[in-house]
Design a protein that fits this description.
4 helices, Rossmann fold, 26% strand, 2 domains, single chain, alpha/beta, globular, four-stranded parallel β-sheet
């Protein structure tokens, strides 16, 4: 039996159909769940929040969506150990909801995704991400080899993780950074980073 996966849809979400298709291609039983159907979320084994501009990213990316009723169910599911994963705006929502380890508690983030630096503009470019944690540590990375180099696109204007230097050090020291931007040969330096993180 395959895992039942909910892909919550907020006003302004996009790429949700592609997310469902990919999850199904990987063997999951994925379905869209509209924000007005929050009570349906209890039926699922895992949750993947896709990209877009939920609630037009008013205030800051993910801030309003993190307080939507549907997130009550996602926060509760994470507390029960169910898999929760965010892509692009979905990751921004999870951070604002306090579900990114090391970045705060439920709806009280101590970090935020901020405007890209040094130029605060929309970035859309091909990148590589290098795995920095033991692959078996997480269901999302379990099938990857150690130090895997994964091709990926960055497409965002608020992709820079912003926090106090002490908080950023705690996030890294706690092993909460699964991937870092890298060049195609696997080297890691500031020029590989599209957003100033």
């Amino acid at each position: 039996m395959s895992a039942r996966i909910a892909v919550p849809v907020f006003p302004g979400t996009n790429s949700e159909d592609e997310t469902v298709r990919l999850l199904r291609d990987c063997g999951g039983d994925a379905e869209l769940v509209h924000w007005s159907q929050a009570e349906r979320l209890a039926e699922y084994d895992a949750y993947v929040l896709s990209g877009g501009f939920a609630y037009e990213d008013r205030i800051r990316a993910g801030a309003i969506a993190a307080h939507d009723r549907i997130m009550d169910f996602v926060i509760a599911a994470a507390g029960k150990g169910k898999l929760v994963f965010g892509i692009c705006n979905g990751a921004q929502i999870l951070l604002e909801a306090g579900l990114v380890p090391g970045t705060g508690t439920a709806r009280k983030p101590t970090a935020a995704f901020a405007k890209n630096e040094p130029e605060p503009h929309f970035v859309c470019r091909h990148n590589y991400m290098k795995l920095t944690v033991e692959p078996s540590r997480c269901a999302i990375t379990a099938a990857l080899p150690a130090n895997a180099l994964v091709p990926a696109w960055a497409a965002h204007s608020e992709g820079r993780l912003a926090a106090t230097p002490e908080r950023l050090d705690e996030i890294v020291a706690g092993g909460h950074v699964a991937f870092v931007y890298a060049h195609g040969d696997g080297t890691v330096d500031a020029s590989a980073v599209p957003n100033g993180s």
